[in-house]
Amino acid sequence: RVKMSAEEILVNAVELGKNFCLYFDELECDALCKEKTLLRVLRNVKSQLLVVRPDLNVAAFEDVTDQEMQSGKGMHFSIHCYKTTTPLAGMPVAFSVQVENKSYYMCCERESGEMIVRFKEGEVPKEIPGESNIIFFKKTFTSCCSTAFKFEYSMEQGMFLAFEEEGYLRKLILKKLSEDEVDETMKMSL
């Protein structure tokens, strides 16, 4: 079974050419356009908040006090939701965060053969013409848990945001997951 999108794309036929080929006009290109932005904190399965510390080049899930949460340094994320002209698995989103009056966006880069999650200074674009290393697909964590989500990296199917214990840190990483597997380290609530 295939789920179809309720979104309609209007296409106007222009002419019937040689060999009875049909030509179309006004086709939209594959592009992502920012639709809305949500301000949220990201929590893992242990109710810890994701905190970005650009000065230390790290993003990790931490236990946060109410006072620290009110100051909000590096933990209140803008989740930029995009609409697209192509049906995709999940809503395309990008993440940014304010730290010390500077804006940082989340992206993924390959380093020493491994995919690394980074936060770089700058703004999230309003439109993305094609593939981008800042886009993740927001999906429900499981069919019976609609309040928790997992985020799949758009450029590598089966790679999801997750946390990994590294000493005392629960560091934000990209982790490979097979389709039928459930991994609690990928479970996030907004």
TrEMBL record:
GO BP annotations, alphabetical order: cellular response to lipopolysaccharide; cytokine-mediated signaling pathway; immune response; inflammatory response; positive regulation of cytokine production
Coiled-coil zones: none
Molecular function via GO: cytokine activity
Principal place of residence: cytoplasm
One Pfam family per UniProt: IL1
GO cellular component, one term: extracellular space
Subcellular location: Cytoplasm; Secreted
DNA repair keyword on record: no
Signal peptide residues on this chain, from the entry's feature table: none
Keyword tRNA processing on entry: no
CDD domains named in the record: beta-trefoil_IL18
Alphabetic keyword roster: Cytokine, Cytoplasm, Secreted
Subunit field text: Forms a ternary complex with ligand-binding receptor subunit IL18R1 and signaling receptor subunit IL18RAP at the plasma membrane. Mature IL18 first binds to IL18R1 forming a low affinity binary complex, which then interacts with IL18RAP to form a high affinity ternary complex that signals inside the cell. Interacts with cargo receptor TMED10; the interaction mediates the translocation from the cytoplasm into the ERGIC (endoplasmic reticulum-Golgi intermediate compartment) and thereby secretion.
Recorded family membership: Belongs to the IL-1 family.
Protein's name in the database: Interleukin-18
Organismal lineage: Eukaryota, Metazoa, Chordata, Craniata, Vertebrata
